[in-house]
């Protein structure tokens, strides 16, 4: 079968992989689309993500949707439109016993070498990690449910989004969904910052009250001014670079919360301990999501969340390399870029 293969840094080419055979409890899914996550782009451009790299060519992609090809005895009938949860927990370790499946000590993750990702015609995946999506959802947009789940989880981790003044630093898919979720959860006022103007337009569409363009405006100073020097209650970091974290720390009020979702390229942050300590800040890191698919899919079904505005570009799998380059350069208003199979 056809598969996109990453051979090296900035080198994704179409190749072949053997067809998978579903094992016990697995379904076979025919892939329709895979969207590119920041972690895929880190792997593409830097050759590693969070210290994980690879040896041979591997199949990238973990945000995937498709149609069940072979139910394999499970109750997901052939023809069912589905999205995949890329993380498979062991259900045996202490974290799983606590219901913290995303922190499973033996987690298997789609596209984290040596596990092949989803950018291939067929994928066999555990049936309990495969979720039905409503017929009304465009299957090319459906993979974007994965970053929505991450946003849902991030907002869940914040202790008091209702009534809070919130800032979201970084308006990629996760940042945009985070601000949307903060809105749905009753945030009082939402600031959003990003260097890219088109993303700020989307942020306003999704519910941000005030947006500031990094590099053109001084978001830190403006947010402080707009809050009469008080700062925000909760700041979500959804960008990655050091400067983004610095901006978060600048705008959060004493006893406020910093929720870090982004992935720093160098896997390292510099912080001045006194600046956090004196304000007694709570800093929370986010590890993807935990069992958020059913809720995310329900929000999409209800129309509370629209996936379409964030799915900005579509490329046939033959042009996967171009899709990656666009996602890396973030030009042309790109937020989520899909690689599509016919
Ligand atoms: Zn992702
Ligand atoms: Zn486990």
Can you walk through the features of this model?
This protein is of the alpha/beta class. The chain folds into 2 domains: 2-141 and 307-340, Quinone Oxidoreductase, Chain A, domain 1, CATH 3.90.180.10; 148-285, NAD(P)-binding Rossmann-like Domain (Rossmann fold, 3-Layer(aba) Sandwich), CATH 3.40.50.720. Helices cover 27% and strands 27% of the residues. It contains 10 helices and 17 strands. The strands form 4 sheets. Strands 3, 4, 5, 8, 9, 16 and 17 form a 7-stranded mixed β-sheet that branches. It has a 6-stranded parallel β-sheet with strand order 12-11-10-13-14-15, with helices on both faces. α10 (320-329) links the parallel β16 and β17. The longest helix has 13 residues, at 145-157. The radius of gyration is 20 Å and the shape is globular. The mean pLDDT is 95. Bound molecules: zinc ion (ZN) (2 copies).
CATH-defined topology of the largest domain: Quinone Oxidoreductase, Chain A, domain 1
Residues in helices, as a percent range: 25-40%
The CATH level-2 architecture of the largest domain is identified as Alpha-Beta Complex
Which spans have pLDDT < 50 for at least 5 consecutive residues?
none
Mean pLDDT: 95
Structural class, from helix and strand content? alpha/beta
- How many domains, as an integer? 2
Number of H- or I-type helical stretches = 10
Give the ordered list of helices and strands.
Answer: EEEHEEEHEEEHEHEHEHEHEHEHEHE
> What compounds are bound to the protein?
zinc ion
CATH homologous superfamily placement of the largest domain: Medium-chain alcohol dehydrogenases, catalytic domain
Strand content: 25-35%
What does the overall shape look like? globular
CATH class of the largest domain: Alpha Beta
Instruction: Write down the Rg.
Output: 20 Å
DSSP strand count: 17
Q: Tell me the major beta sheet.
A: 7 strands, mixed
Q: What is the first-to-last residue Cα distance?
A: 13 Å
